[in-house]
Sequence to fold (128 residues):
Amino acid sequence: MKVRGQPGQLRTAMIGSIFYNEHKIVSDEKTGDFDREKAEELLRKEEEMSDMTGNPRIVDVCYGWPHAFEKFIDFVAETIDDPFALDGATARVKEKYGLPVDRLKERHKLDPTRYLLASCARINILVI
Fold:
C-alpha cells in the first residue's frame, strides 16, 4: 500500500485507532490489559468497512507505556494481515521509551513495509 501524494493519485486509506487514551476496551493503560474479544470485534468491523468501501485500511495502534506497547502490537500483528501504525501518545513518549521495531520484526517475521510510524502530534505518517 502506498500513502501520501496528491489527491486523486492514490486511493484514500482508512486509518482507525485502537487502544487510544481512555479507550473503553483498555482496562489498564500501563500494563496493556484489554478486552481481547471487544478488540477483535472492532478490528473485524473495521475490516468489513474496508471491504465494503474498497478503501484499504491501516490500524493505528496507540500506546503510552512500554509494556502496553508490546502487548498491543503483538495482538494487532497476530490478528490482522493489514499494515498498522505505531502511534505513541506524544513525541516525548517515543523518545523516552523508544520503538522496539527490530524486536517486533524478529518476533513476527513481518515485512518492514507493514509498519508505519505515526505521530498524532504532527499529523503525519512516515513509512519505516
